[in-house]
Write a structure and sequence with these properties.
The protein has 16 helices and 21 strands. With 472 residues, the protein is of the alpha/beta class.
């Protein structure tokens, strides 16, 4: 009979991805003893199968695309990318899927790491193997999400790619079908098309990136098609099989497509199905609803941070939530009675609601923060969309020949502030933080006129947007 060991901490964090790491960092900085539990690699999805490897794959693709827009340089980069070199650099960014460095970081902040599958086994209690971890103040669940596959008969036998396979593959398939029209689908279609695959993108809806302004998906779809990808919107997969190693896809219109691999990028599901939620009165497999301090509704000790609360499925937003949760846990542990409904305080993840930024690293890049026109109108704001073609900006012409891009700001006509901003075009991802500051800070339009963009940069689009608002 195995003896059970019990260890007590102030805080127990379930999940050691970037979100869980940030919770632990904040609670340790506040002097709280902290245990971190991880069943896979310390560093989580972002470090090994999402943000870092995907952007490592995409950076050479975008750099080459930019170079091809410049006379004097274009001819020097006409050849294909060195795919093995790109994949080797990607491997380096993942540490070849070892987590030694991340483990050392956990140790450096003074937290204790427990490897294994952790499950809640009661209030303030997490069990890992034969060890029971008891939390004096809080348990923070940061287990993230997994790829959600559709219920197609026989899909498991096809061995489809999920996002993990797409970001960790060690060679480019000759033919790749990508199912989906969101961020993962468009980024991976962009990457593998440039790395030597013939990509067919099957999108059930009318366009790509349907959570952004419509022109974002339109510009990305046009660029993918120009790069050689076969983009088919309004197309669903009716069946898929693998015959003698070849993937055979039949669409809802009866078309037959053959490929070497198929990637399903059709959504995410919470990793909450086997973490013991039933032991504390919650439903396994569900998203966890939280308040703005990230505390699970109906509890005074359980926090759900990052993707699993379904507020904003983005690493940077999850890390933001982790900082808020860590501060709230520390304050409550010190006996502070946190006030309710205090937007923008140190204990409220207010930005989750209407100020979320995101960059899609396609060519062109698509970046947005806040509300789209449709979302702003649905929220009841009286707004106006102000659009600018990037060709009107001197910095765009210098950036590359035949620059294609568009910007939009959503102006609240009653408050004279911005509710949302969208940029689509090469090199525009780095502009989104200026827009985020304007949206989060609710900077008045009148004051934005005094934020003078340097000439001749792409940021001069801000001046063009303000002029368009004034003159129309």
């Amino acid at each position: 009979m195995t003896e059970t060991e019990t260890n007590t901490y102030d805080v127990v964090v379930l999940g050691a991805g970037p979100v869980g790491e940030n919770v632990a960092d904040r609670t340790r900085a506040a002097g709280l003893t902290t245990a971190v539990v991880e069943s896979e690699l310390v560093g989580g999805e972002c470090s090994y199968w999402a943000c870092m490897p995907s952007k490592a794959l995409l950076r050479p693709v975008l750099a080459q695309a930019d170079a091809r827009r410049l006379p004097g340089l274009a001819e020097a980069v006409r050849g294909p990318l060195d795919t093995p070199a790109v994949l080797a650099r990607r491997n380096w960014f993942t540490g070849d899927w070892t987590d030694d460095g991340q483990v050392e970081w956990i140790k450096s902040i003074g937290a204790d790491l427990y490897r294994g599958h952790g499950r809640l086994t009661g209030p303030r209690e997490v069990t890992v193997g034969d060890t029971v971890l008891t939390a004096r103040h809080a348990v923070a669940v940061a287990t993230g999400t997994r790829a959600a596959l559709p219920g197609l008969p026989g899909l498991a036998e096809v061995r489809p790619w999920t996002s993990r396979d797409a970001t960790s593959a060690q060679s480019a398939p000759g033919r790749l079908v990508v199912v989906g029209g969101g961020v993962v689908a468009t980024e991976m279609a962009t990457a593998w098309q440039a790395l030597g695959s013939q990509v067919t993108l099957l999108v059930r809806g009318k366009g790509l990136l349907d959570r952004m302004e419509p022109f974002a998906g339109e510009l990305v779809a046009a660029a993918l098609s120009e790069a050689g990808a076969d983009v088919r919107t309004g197309t669903s997969v009716a069946s898929v099989s693998r015959v003698d190693g070849t993937v055979v896809v039949v669409t809802d219109t009866g078309e037959r497509i053959e490929a070497d691999e198929i990637l399903f990028a059709t959504g995410r599901a919470p990793r909450t199905d086997d973490i013991g939620l039933e032991t504390v009165g919650l439903t396994p497999g569900s998203w966890l609803s939280v308040d703005d301090s990230l505390r699970v509704d109906g509890t005074d000790w359980l926090y759900a941070v990052g993707d699993i609360n379904h507020r904003a499925l983005l690493t940077h937003q999850g890390k933001y939530q982790a900082r808020i949760a860590g501060a709230a846990i520390a304050a409550r542990a010190a006996g502070t009675d946190l006030p309710e409904n205090t937007p923008w305080s140190a204990y409220a993840a207010t930005a989750d609601h209407e100020s979320v930024p995101q960059v899609v690293f396609t060519d062109p890049e698509a970046a947005a923060v806040g509300l789209s026109l449709t979302e702003a109108e649905a929220a009841g704001y009286r707004v106006r969309a102000v659009d600018v073609d990037l060709s009107s900006v001197s910095g765009a012409g210098l950036y590359g020949e035949d620059y294609k891009g568009r910007a939009r700001m959503i102006v609240d006509l009653d408050e004279e502030i911005l509710r949302g901003v969208t940029f689509v075009g090469p090199g525009l991802g780095e502009l989104i933080h200026s827009a985020t500051i304007a949206v989060v800070g609710q900077v008045p339009i009148a004051r934005l006129w005094h934020a003078v963009p340097s000439y001749p940069t792409l940021s001069e689009v801000w001046l063009r947007l303000l002029e368009a608002y004034r003159d129309n």
